[in-house]
Structure formats: structure tokens, C-alpha cells
Amino acid sequence: MANVKVMGLGIKIFWISFCGMAGLIVIIWYLTQNFMMDTFKTQQTRYVANLLERTEVHLNLFMKTLQGNLLALSRDERLQTASDDEAIKLMESYLMYWNQDLKNMYLIRPDLKVIGTSDYLWDIKGHRMAPDIYKAVVMSDQMYWSEPYVSDVSDHTVTAGVSIYDAAGKFYSVLAVDLDLQNILSSYGHWDFSQTDDLLIVSRDFRPISIYHPLVTYNAFDDEYRVKESLFVRLAEANRKEWNYRDAGGNGWFISRARNNNWGWQIMAVLPEKELYSSIGKIRFYTLLVGLIGVMLSLVISYYLSRYVSRPIYMLIRQMKRVSRGDFQTRITLPFRGEIGILVHNFNLMVQKIKGLMDELLQSETSKKQYELKVLQAQIQPHFLYNTLNSISYLVRRGETDDVDRMITSLVEMLHFHLDKIDEIVPIRQEAQGVEHYAYLLSMRYPGRFSLEVELDESVNAFTIPKLTLQPLVENAIFHGILAEDRCGTIVLTGRVENGAIVVLEVSDDGVGIPESKLGTLLRTGANESRKAYYHLGIRNIHERLQLHYGPEYGLHVQSIAGEGTTVTITLPAVPDANLPMGGDEHAASTAR
Fold first, then answer.
1. DSSP letters spanning 62-76
2. pLDDT value, residue 182
3. Residues in CB range of 145: below 8 A, 6 or more apart
4. Global pTM?
């Protein structure tokens, strides 16, 4: 199965926190944006409706005032008794009072003759709507308001008319005024946030009173202004105050309508949606900017959050790896708190306890090896002593006093080295001397069977070695290498210093050797050993003692060829003998046979 790369804890925390915060920010951004847009649209439409109501109030006030003044003027007796010129002057004086809200004021006689302001134009162009206005005013019980039309004299206008009666109550004529629609709209329909062109006022029959709106068209054949046909249908059908309209060109319009007046006029704000909601783009931009800033902040927060959580865990992992490699001095000293702090504290406590246990185990192993050495030192094999003493007795009977003296001297020196000296670490020269004494005593028991050659460099004598390291190896070479067969042999002990830091000792023999099947397991833990006595410490035991003292890079290395011999190499650190005077000991190489 292919290896699957597992996502790290820090990356998981980063993505979970980032996706969570970013998702929440996006949801809040979306809801906030919609709420702000809906609120803005509501406020805008409400503001437009308020403007329409205000405009309608002003127009109602103007028209009521105009209606009252016309009724008052219609009762002025001067209009009934004055000549045409005097009547024209009187109407001109009234017209000035209205401050350009009226274009013309005139009288329509029963014979349909028109006299009034702009009198010369009435004579030249005439008044094509005069019969209709006269008839409508006479038939009306109150003031008459015409539909908007295009006058030859007053241009696009609406005419208001009232009947004039004499003192006896007899009908005299019709008093009419033409309104200046654009001046009125510019005065009463001014908006702070928009343009006057956005105001659309239509009459009861949906004829446009305001003509400068994009949805109003001019028909040159009929000489009149009209609302676009599609909008006209919507106006006739719609009974709502507000709605949206889309023209044939795909342009969107917002329409708000007010029609609370006595003349049936409808005052509407017909605004392009892109202008009405122009601020929505800015709202979208700023809300998007805030959302992006929130996402960036969540990115930064997620990074530091994942780092804050994963950093101590990664530190614990690194320190655990160091502990697994045997480094029990490691500690985490950063001041973490909370659960992480408890975990760090327990880790440090655990490492400290493990180190204590390892120190106790090492001390126990060291004590065990020392105890084993002391036991072996105290258990000199009686058989060896018996044979040695028997050999001395034999030489005494034969009168070979020189050999007897030398054997007793060697035995005393060996016993003194093994029993009196309790130090576990001894100079290499003393260890070599003990081996020479031991080999000499054995050579007296087995005369002519083997010889020992000691060839140590002078530099080796300045360093130390654990006691009973060389003698067991020489013993194995004698009994298992040479005496195992009926043959003579030689044992060579050599020593040198390499690179001034490592001591290399070798015990070589030309005996029977070690079988290859046994050679591979000789230094392994659990290998069987025979004759566990004073003169036979197992090779594995020596190897473990050396590694216990100096470390795993030191110890024994065995090379052997069956039938040719065996070489055991001892590797030690060059530890100087503290009791050796400057210049060393001139211990000469000797040969025991």
C-alpha cells in the first residue's frame, strides 16, 4: 500500500480555524451587505415618497391660492365695466403679483373674442382652445382646470378658468389664466438629491404636465406631449404607490406616485435605478473591503493560533526523539501555561525520573560487576593452588631450589595482585606482570607445551585497564586453544597506542581456533560459558565490563580461523595512570615459557 502523507497538527488547526473564521466572516458579510442594501433602498424610496408628498403639498397650496385669487378677481366690478384696454391693464397688474407663475391672463367673451395680456399675440395667432375652455367653464359649477396642451401663445400650459357674473348675477364672460408649468415645477418641485427632470406629473387623463422627462415624447403631428405608450399602460393599470419599470431599451426605473389632490394630478418620481442606487456600489465595495480585511485577519490569527498550539507539541516530539536516542539531559524551558504547561511539566518530570532510573540501573550494573570481580578474586580455585603447590613439592624433592624459589615468588606476586589490591582499574604494566606470573606457574605444570611472549610498546605502560582483563584471555588461549590438542603453541600479547587516544591490545595464539558457527555468537548476551571459575572469565563478560566502563564503542573483537589460531583485540580509551611519575615505567618485554 502506498504511503499516505498525514497532514500535520499545525496545518489541521490552521485550516480548521481559518475556514471557520473565514466562513463566519463571509456569512456575516453577506447578511450585512443585504441588510444594508435593503435598508438603503428602503430609506431611499421613503425619502423619495416624502419629497413627493412635500411637492404635492406645495402644489396644492399654490393651486388653492390661485383658485382663491381668481375667484376674488372674477368679482372685481372693474372687469365688468372697464373697456378692453383698461381690463388688459388691470389683468397685467394682477399678473405681476404672481411672479411669473402665470404666463397669460385673459377674458373670453361670449363671442369667443380673447382679450388680455399678450393681446397682440391673441390677435395674430388666436386661441384654438378658446371654444373648448369657454364651454367647459360655463358648464362647470366651480373653477375649471384643463388638460395640458400646447398653446400658440403660452406654449405648453394648463388653463384655469372661472365664470364672471355682473352685480345682477348675469353671466358676463370667462376669466382664464395659463400656467407657467416649468417655472412652477422648478419652484415647488426642487429636490436636493436629484434633478427636476426626474419629476413626472401627469393629469387625470395621463397627459404629461412636466415634459422634460426621458419617458415623455413629443408628437409633432398632433402637437402634443405624451407619456411613452408602455408606461402609459402601466400608469393606467397600476394602483400602487411604488413599483419598478423597465423600458424597451432594458433601462430600469423606480416609480413612486402621490395623487392626493382635488385635480386628479399624479405627482411621480421616475428615477433611473442606477442613479437612485448609485451608493449601493460603494456599499458593496466597502463591505467587500471589510470582508477581505476580515479574511486576512482570520488568516493571520489562524497562523498564530496553529503555531501557538502546535509549537510546544512539536517541541515535545523533538525532545522525545532525543530521549529515545538516549539523551536524558534534555528539558523544555519555555513558560507554557494551561494544559500545554502541564504537559511540558510532566514531560520534564518523566525525563528526570527516567534519567534517575537509568543512573540507578547503571550504578546497579557497575556494583554487580564489581561484586562479581571481588567474588572471583576471593575464590581462587583450590585445584589450581593444589597443582601449583604439588609442583613446588616435586621440585623440592628433586632439589631444584632455584625453580622452587621462582615459583613461590610468582605465586606470592599473583596472590598479592589478586587479593591484596582492591582497585578495579590497574596499570597495564601490572596487569601484564600478573599474566606473566600466571603463565609461568602453568608452564611449570605443562612444561614445553606453550610459551607466552609479551611485546608491549613503552607508551602503553602509561595507561590503565580493568583488572582481570588480559589473564582470562590468556587462560582461554592456553586451555582452549593450545592444550585442547596434543601440540605445542605460542601466545603473543602485544599493545600499542593509536592517535594518542586509543589503546589497542591483542592476545593471539596459534591453537585450534574457534569454529565459525560459534564465533558469531561469542560476544552476544546469553552465550553459554564453561568452567565459570577464577581462571576462566567468559569473553562476553570481559566485553560487557569494558563497555560498561568506557562505552559501546569499546570492547573486544574476536578473529579466528579453525586450525590456525585466534586473535582477540581489546580496544580501550587512553586513560593515563594517575600514580605514574613523569617519564613512565620502564617495563621491558619479557618471555615466559
1. HHHHHHHHHHHHHT-
2. 82
3. 158, 159, 160, 263
4. 0.46
